Every structure is written in structure tokens, then in C-alpha cells.
Amino acid sequence: MSTVDEIKSRLDIVDVVSAYVPSLKKAGRTYKGLCPFHSEKTPSFVVFPDSQTWHCFGACSTGGDIFTFVMKREGYDFSEALKFLAEKAGVPLEERSPEATQADRRRKKLLEMVSVAAQFFHTQLLQSPQAEFCREYVARRGLSHDTVVSFQLGYAPDRWEALKSHLLQRGYSEQDMVAAGLLVTKEENRPGYDRFRDRFIVPIRDLRGQTVGFGARALHDGQQPKYLNSPQSVLFDKSAILFGLDMAKNAIRDAGQAIIVEGYMDALQAHERGFKNVVAEMGTALTERQLRELKRFTKKFVLALDSDSAGSAATLRGINLARQTLADSTPVPTPQGLIRHESRLNVELLVATMPPGKDPDDILRENPSLWQEKIDSALPLMDYYIQTVTAPLDLNSPKGKATAVKEIIPLLREISDPVEQAAYLQQLSRLVKIGERVLREELQRTPATTAPSGRTATTAPKHRFQPEPPAPPQTAAKPVNGGNTEELCLAMVVGKPEMLSAVNRKLFDHGADVLAVEDFSNPANRALFLQIKGWAVSENPTMDDLPEIVSETLQGHLATIMSLWVNQPHTPPDEYVEKELPKMIVRMRRQRLEKRLQELTALQSDAIEQNDRDGVRQWQQRISETRDTLKLLDKAHDALSIMGRRRIEEKYLG
What we know:
This protein is α+β, with helices and mostly antiparallel strands. 50% of the residues lie in helices and 11% in strands.
């Protein structure tokens, strides 16, 4: 993941923009406010949480992402905006090595391949005769067609090489399939076979909606294992992903709370029944990375896990992890006049208990109203924790009393409200039959940290969260050819700068504007083009001059772009660049306008729901204008291609 992508994954555009636009308010699926870049009385500034973009539909008529917003609002260049947002997101800025650049490119290719695999599984579920049993299973689970489509649910055929053959036909290598966890190889240098066969497939997506792995459920009795997930890979890290967060994030923000369940079937059932603010763990206890990701959208968490003993253990692990992950360090004065830093929870943690023998999936299918009742009656963290910790203890014995106090006092220290803290201290006093004065002295005692030997002074109970060992270092990925459209466009400009004038003339001759910074959506690409476009039209531009022209912040990105050109098996001739680059630029513009069309359609839908007739007409006019522009781009693209010219001749000349 590039630094820009890492920053975007950690920051939410609504939070960033809200700091500058106090008038920003939720309006349907978007947020609207007064534009900070020009004076207006009627809000025309819109933020789109789903795409993490913004656009002014008023006098500015411009938009972009968090980078373009900060650059425009603060007057920063890209380097300054990168430093500002990196600091805000807690992302260290380091010089990227060639190996890291190659790894980014490889990851992009694997993401494309996994997306193709997800569509293959989805098409199989919808259309394949062999998937009839799986379709019946989906119906039995009460999942509608809308849920199947929105989550891109699928079916893996009962064949050894169904997916493998499909991907090979599309130019992906077996090596890439193994790297993404799609194939299994028993021996090195032996052909691999499909990991998922005759199973119900659930794509697992990251926060940005990119498919990074799969969960696969058995369809038949005796089929083992019952649940089979993608293995750890360069794309898939189950400790960093919450299933369904890409679909739930807006509902979480709207509801002001996130509900966490154990499995993806629980989450699917919740979304099916209209409970959209539900996410699922990935088969393990909650991790720090998962909770920090979730904290971006809410500070209220409801853990709704299974009722059996495993569920209770998982709940305890989740609670203890949440204590560490979601706490802030607060300065606290000591009786001696010194200052110590304590962790204080700044979130609300609740636990919803399920009826015996039931899990969330059961309750949601059988009685959705009971599910809502259980969520509404969820116990605060301390109540559940005290209840669960003390249940197996003999509170009449000294050992039982000591264990209860040792387990519960650390959580009491984290309650910042003195009244709430005193109430729970009284509750503990009644339970263990020990005076409040004694317990308060224990409460005020500074927690032990480390013993002189360097060992931990106190041993954590077995169910306490234990920090995960660091992941083993990954070997550098092998270089691969390729890149997205914007990067390939820049690579052609860098590799054949003398052709840019001819390309611009060709675009102009076919009714299209010349290549401009607005054609790039990626902020790093925009910044790089801005710095090199003057060089490209200068006399005798050479690649050797570029490092002196481009800012230090963009040197790593420049190296990536240059490598796309240099590492081509054969240097493309001038004729190829003059023919292909204009079409590439038109495609970039079309992609941007298609996204704009989706945004406008969403705004129109909101206006319809609010019975805002003027708004409906306004957005319809903009939709029509955008569609007209798309038609002109299609016409230009046809005119720029040989086949397109033939179609035009046949259409108009017979």
C-alpha cells in the first residue's frame, strides 16, 4: 500500500472536512455544507463518504479527495499536504525503496486478479446449473437477491481447476494465484489446484471495498472444514480486517454505534434484516488493528457474540483488547504532587448476551425484534465483566475474593467519571464483602509495571489479551509489468515527452481538451504531472533531467513511473504513443465522469426521498449534462480508434 493510500485508509474525509466546514450536515447518503472556497448562502458543497471525495456544485465547480481539499483550503502543495495529513493519520514518511515500489505494483495486480475471481464465483452462483444446491442453501438461510448482489456472494464449482482455468485465460499466472491464496500447491514446482471447491463463497473486502480474500462455507454434511478462509497473504490479513465494514461504515456513523459479531454469516443475516451497522470478526478474537479501524466511525461498541463458552471467552478477549486499544493516555496528579499517565477509556463498550444455545444468525432469522431487544439491553462493559469474572469464583473464600478484586480493579481505574467509579466500587464491595475503604486504597495504588529484573511484575490471567507476535518479514516481491491507467499515461509522457504536443493536437482535433492536471484523480499523479508538464514541452527533454525537476517527496513515485517505461520488453514507437495515449486520456476522463454520474444520481435519489422537487430538477439537469459529455467522449474515443473510424464511416457514409 502506498503512503497516500495508507493515509486515506486511516482518515475519513467527513472528519477532515468538518474541521474546516462547521456547516457540514448529513443529508441522506451525503454531507452538505457551505462551500469554504467561495461565498454562498445555499449549501452547494457536498462530501461523499462512500467514495471519500468532495465536490462543489456552485461557483467553484471543482472537487477531489482529502489531499485536494487540504491543498486548496490551506494553500499547500502536494508535499506539504502529504506531511500534514501523514502527521494527522500517524503515518511515517519514509523514502520508498525500489523493492517497496515493486511490492506496491505487485499488490495492485493481485487485487485486480482477486476481483476477477470474485466476479467468477458470483456469476457461478447466479447462472451455473451446478450451483442450484448452493442457491437453495442461500434461500434456506433467508438471504435475498439484493444481499447476494451487494455482497457479491458466490459459488466455487466442484472442479479442481475451474477458477485456475478462468484466470489463466485472462492472462494471470499460476504463481500470482498461489500468492493470492487462490490455489493450493502440495509440492514445489507442481501444478496447483483451486483452494475453494463446491463451497458457498463470501468475498472479504477491505475498507475501500476492494476484495482481498474469501470466506468459504461447506454446503454438505461431513465437508471439512466447515469454514475455510483465504490464507495469510500480501493482500489478506485477517487480524486487520472486519468483515462488512465497507458496507457498514455509513450506517455505523449514522447509528452512532457499531455491533460486532463473530462470523460473516451473522453479519450477512444482520444486513439482510436491515441492521446495517454490523461487522464481523475474522474467526479470531478482536485485534488492535480492527478496533482502531472501527473507532474512526464511532465511539460506541456493542459486542454481540455467541452464547456458548467459546463465545464468552472471545468476549473477554475482545474486552481486554478493547481496554488497551481504545484507551487514551491521561495525565493524573498523584498525592505527592507528581504527574503519572493512566489509560482512560474514551469509548462506550457494551456486551449483548444471546439466549442459551443461540447465536446472532439464529435470532436474526427467527425473531429480528428479539435481536433489537438484546442490542438495546446490552450490558455496560463493567457490569458484564463483573458478572462474567465472578460467576465461577467462590466469593466466600479468600482466594475467590482476591481473584475478583485483582481482575476488576484495573477496569475501575479506567473509569474517568468519579460518580460512576464510586458506584461500581460499591457494587464490588457488596459482592466480595470487603469494605470500600480497603478497595479504594487498592484502586488508588499505582499499577505495577515491570519488576527490576525486567520481567512483568504481575502475571496476566490466561484469558487476558496477549500481544500478537510481530509478523515475519516478507521477502521482496518480484518486479512485474503493468500499472493503472493514470500511471501508464504518466509513463508515456515521461518516456516520450516529445510526443505530448502531438497528442494534445490530436485530442483537440477530435473535440477533446488537452491533457491537464484535472485528468488525474490520484493526488500523487496530479502533483507529478504538474511538475513535469513544462519539462515535457521544453526543448530536448531527457529523463536524466527529471530528478532535478521533481520535488523530493515525489522522487519515489517518479521512480515507479519511470520503471513502468524502462521495464517494458520493447520500447513503444512514436506511432504507438500517438495512437494509444489520446485514447487512454479519454478513458481516464470517462472514468471520472462515470463516478460523477453515480454521485449525481445519489443526490437526486436523496432529493426524491425528501420530496425536494427543485433538487430533483437541479440534479436531473446536471445528470443530463454529464451524460451529454460522456457521449462526446465516446464519440472522441471512437474517432481516435481505427475500428471507431470504421463504425463512423459505416454509420454516416453507408
